[in-house]
Design goal:
heterotrimer; A mainly alpha (300); B alpha/beta (290); C mainly alpha (335); A: 300 residues; mainly alpha; two-stranded antiparallel ribbon; 4 strands; globular; B: 290 residues; alpha/beta; 6-stranded mixed β-sheet; 4-stranded antiparallel β-sheet; flat
Chain lengths: 300, 290, 335
């Protein structure tokens, strides 16, 4: 059943987009900044994962899917650290500088990260060792679901759920939501805004990095440009759902993944990216606050 | 005929009704004051007159022509032949289409209504003269070709713009500051510049949104004289103001708003004695203990 | 030092401009073909920078998809020449026209968008244009490798092959561009752009048709970029979708913003830093993205108005630093 297969694939890609989109949306929420460097943190997640995995394989000399666990942890920690570092160096000095300067700085960071990856790792495609990836799958109603897909989806949904609960139910999560509404009032309420923002940059890029590793594992190969397009798509997903809004990122990611896959399947794969961009343009023209966002007007 | 009139003017922001079926009339060459407690809807009415908001219901007419109208729903648009034809650049069609929509702010200015803002919105980083030069902008034409080739018509036009700007600066007593950056002017002069800039658009009606805000006693008295001077030069004045000395001093008629509704209208004396007005500002009078 | 600057400013502009022109005319003569090409590329990018300056510097609109129009101009010239044998010189005005019309069509629906959202939409548009070119729409754009085989430009019977000819052509167009943009800045239209830049709501209230004014900036800037594209096609004779890629748009944006927003010397400074320097330095070329990135981050932190901004922009940034904008929507008390 072609449609079902497309839907399954679409949901899988959607899950990836969601993981990355959540990072975008969280950062936008607290800083009102579009962190263009986020996609490159995703890309670095893939590289760090590869390095770690290769190292572990060298150590253990025998592949096993369980090696993925320490790798994921390593990736999460490393990229989270990168995220916090980037925030400190490139974004914090620009907090009061209007809207344009941070965006340009973010772009700059993106280029630096890309350039570093290209020069350190080389421009060729890298592949993840196959023995770590799970093979096999099963058939469902005429469509094929691979084991990888199932695991990936399970992990993704788990992460989404954890993040959602974290933001909604914990004190830090509530502090994050306060900071995303108003920095000054949050400070008056006793919230350490800088610390909260650092935490956001731990979680967001951390998730993004993990997503990068998972995607690279899933597809098998990647290069240093994977961050850019993926990041942009995830960003589109975040905007689609309503930027600054975590459930929005989830909805947007899923919608984008499914629409894109269906479009590529039924129309033409070449135009996959164009579809995503056109969705973005239409959303920004007609409903810039996204599907789940609130409408805000300027007061004169 | 009234210069400006509104019928059943209403504005809702989501669940909040900011302006509730307000009807008023403004006669030529009068100074009309619009007063009321904060939140009463005064600036919202101004914003609807000047095209920043479209009314949710009701209409506004200026010199007999409609300038504000609730936005047409898509259903209405598709069923109105004029909308289908509105892309045609024919003046007759455009005139008809204008009757169905609210005019944009710059079109309102072209029709002859100028305004100042509650919080000063000057062009801060350019000179006082350049600020005033924005007034004659819509009356002049020079475009890309004029800018690049500078024919004599363009040079004459530039001179006209500068002269008009200077004239209005002079009217408000700001000539000597012409080369100062707007942001460097003292507050009182900034208020005057806002008015001078509005006057430079050659309006028939000028709307002043709290022109006396932040002015001291002396400056307020000067402001009152300036407003009368404006009226004497042939321009009608509509004014929002909280400073009662100014309001009672120069307004010939006053309209009072509270919670979006018009609650009183009349001369300063009539309005001052109106119990509803007193109640709106001060709350209900305490019952006297006998 | 200050004394020197005051004395420098006192010299009539005509003299040092004449001197620069003289230098520019003589510069390629002692150099080899490679460096002449570098000069050509510098001139071309200054022109592109100035075209973007109209949009970003004068009107204050964020445009991160400008390279799309550069590409469209090149493709118009190239395709007309390859498919219809139109002599290259005649394709120039058409390149301008097509790019300008495309600029109108793409920006008309997005003018109401606020700063960072406008930024994103322009990125998206740029990418869509590039992908349309890559995907070989209707089979005419040649796909990812582009098109080659554009005829050489023929002027007064001479076939212009050597880089030096193209340098002088670009120099002539560059001078025209500088002249035109200077005049635009100092005109009724330039003032209208400044008003819109300063406070769009107030500008609209003063009778300035802000939509028209913003659109004009986009159309002019895009058309000009189209001209640059045609000039590119004339020299390189090969066109590819890479001309319209996002990195190009970012470079152009950086030329304007980092070099000095709103000013003509700023475009020169920006081009030297973003284009000429990497061309001349091998290590810089390998790390070009990082160089760009570092420049962007440090400039935004240290000197957001750019190295040589126009006076007005410097004023704006200074006043923002003293009293940061409480929000971009000015609020009044409720009424």
């Amino acid at each position: 059943m072609q449609l079902l297969q497309q839907m399954i694939n679409g949901v899988t890609i959607g899950a990836f987009y969601v993981l990355v989109a959540m990072g975008y949306t969280m950062v936008y929420g607290v800083l009102k900044l579009i962190n263009f460097a986020h996609g490159d943190m995703f890309m670095w997640g893939a590289y760090i994962g590869l390095t770690t995995l290769t190292g572990l394989l060298g150590f253990f000399a025998q592949g096993s899917a369980w090696l993925a666990v320490p790798t994921v942890i390593a990736v999460m920690l490393t990229i989270a650290a990168v995220g916090v570092l980037v925030e400190r160096i490139a974004y914090r000095p620009l907090r009061e500088s209007g809207r344009l300067a941070p965006v340009i700085s973010a772009l700059g960071v993106a280029f630096i990260l890309q350039s570093l990856a290209r020069n350190i790792y080389g421009a060729s495609y890298k592949t993840y060792p196959r023995d770590v990836a799970l093979t096999g799958g099963f058939a469902v109603a005429g469509a094929r679901v691979s084991l990888m897909q199932v695991i990936v989806l399970v992990i993704s949904f788990l992460l989404m759920a954890v993040l959602y609960l974290f933001v909604q139910r914990t004190r830090i999560g509530t502090a994050m939501r306060a900071v995303s509404l108003n920095h000054d009032v949050s400070r008056l309420m006793g919230i350490d805004v800088d610390r909260i923002i650092s935490i956001v940059f731990l979680i967001g890029p951390g998730l993004g990095g993990v997503a990068g590793m998972i995607v690279a594992l899933y597809y098998g190969s990647f290069d240093f440009t994977v961050g850019w397009v993926f990041g942009l798509k995830a960003f589109i997903a975040a905007i689609l759902g309503g930027i600054g809004n975590i459930p929005g990122a989830m909805l947007g990611g899923m919608l984008l993944g499914v629409t894109e896959t269906l479009g590529a399947g039924y129309l033409s794969p070449q135009w996959k990216d164009v579809i995503a961009y056109i969705i973005l343009i239409l959303i920004l023209i007609f409903r810039p606050t996204g599907l789940l966002g609130e409408r805000v007007a300027e007061k004169v | 005929m009234a210069l400006l009139e509104s019928r059943k003017l209403t504005k809702q922001f989501g669940g909040l009704t900011a302006v509730d079926r307000v009807a008023f009339e403004l006669k030529e060459r009068e100074i009309l004051g619009l007063i009321g407690p904060n939140g009463a809807g005064k600036t919202t009415i101004f914003n609807m007159i000047t095209g920043i908001y479209a009314p949710t219901e009701g209409e506004i007419f200026f010199q007999g022509r409609r300038i504000a109208h609730p936005p047409l729903t898509w259903a209405k648009r598709l069923t109105t032949p004029t909308w289908w034809m509105s892309w045609l650049p024919l003046p007759a069609v455009q005139e008809r289409w204008n009757g169905f929509r609210s005019l944009r702010p710059h079109e309102i200015t072209e029709r002859g209504i100028a305004r100042t803002f509650q919080t000063i919105r000057l062009f801060n980083n350019i000179t006082v003269l350049e600020n005033a030069m924005s007034g004659p902008h819509y009356r002049t034409q020079a475009g890309v070709a004029g800018a690049i080739f500078r024919p004599s018509s363009q040079r004459r036009e530039e001179q006209y713009i500068v002269d008009e700007a200077r004239k209005n600066l002079g009217f408000m007593g700001l000539e000597e500051y012409e080369d100062e950056l707007a942001k460097n002017l003292p507050y009182g002069h900034q208020r005057r510049l806002e008015i001078a800039r509005a006057l430079a658009t050659n309006p028939t009606l000028i709307i002043l949104d709290e022109p006396a805000a932040g002015l001291n006693e002396q400056e307020s008295i000067e402001l009152m004289a300036l407003i009368e001077k404006i009226r004497d030069s042939g321009i009608t004045v509509l004014l929002i103001e909280h400073d009662m000395k100014v309001v009672m001093g120069i307004c010939e008629r006053i309209i009072v708003l509270d919670y979006g509704k018009k609650i009183a209208e009349g001369t300063p004396a009539e309005v001052q004695g109106n119990p509803r007005v007193i109640e709106a500002y001060l709350g209900e009078e305490e019952k006297e203990e006998v | 030092m200050k004394d020197l600057l005051t004395r420098f400013r006192a010299i009539k502009p005509l003299y040092w401009q004449g001197a620069l022109l003289f230098l520019a005319t003589l510069a390629p003569l002692p150099l080899g073909d490679y460096y002449r090409s570098v000069l050509w590329r510098t001139g071309l990018y200054v022109m592109l920078g100035l075209s973007l300056n109209i949009i970003v510097g004068y009107a204050g609109l964020f445009q991160l998809g400008h390279a799309a129009f550069y590409g469209v101009g090149a493709y118009t010239a190239g395709m007309l020449n390859i498919y219809f044998d139109v002599p290259l010189l005649l394709t120039f005005p058409l390149s301008v026209l097509v790019a300008a019309v495309l600029g109108y069509l793409l920006t008309r629906p997005i003018l109401h968008l606020r700063g960072d959202y406008l930024c994103i939409v322009t990125i998206a548009f740029g990418e869509v244009v590039r992908l349309v070119l890559v995907n070989n729409i209707f089979g005419i754009t040649g796909g990812a490798n582009g098109l080659s085989g554009i005829d050489r430009l023929v002027l007064f019977g001479i076939v212009l092959r050597a880089p030096i000819y193209h340098y002088y052509i670009v120099l002539i167009f560059l001078i025209i561009t500088i002249f035109a943009t200077q005049r635009l800045q100092d005109s009724r239209l330039g003032r209208a752009w400044r008003y819109v830049r300063e406070d769009e709501v107030a500008a609209e209230a003063m009778g300035v048709d802000t939509t028209r004014v913003k659109l004009l900036a986009f159309v002019l800037g895009s058309g000009w970029a189209g001209l640059a594209g045609a000039l590119y096609a004339a020299k390189i004779t090969v066109i590819s979708p890479d001309q319209a890629k996002f990195m190009e748009s970012v470079i152009l944006f950086c030329i304007v913003v980092l070099g000095g927003t709103g000013s003509i010397p700023g475009a020169f400074v920006g081009t030297l830093g973003m284009v000429t320097l990497p061309e001349l330095s091998r290590p810089l070329r390998a790390w070009r993205d990082a160089w760009l990135g570092v420049a962007m981050v440090t400039m935004m932190i240290a000197r957001p108005e750019g190295l040589w901004p126009s006076r007005q922009i410097r004023r704006e940034i200074k006043s923002e630093e003293e009293a940061p904008d409480p929000s971009l929507a000015v609020t009044g008390r409720s009424d």
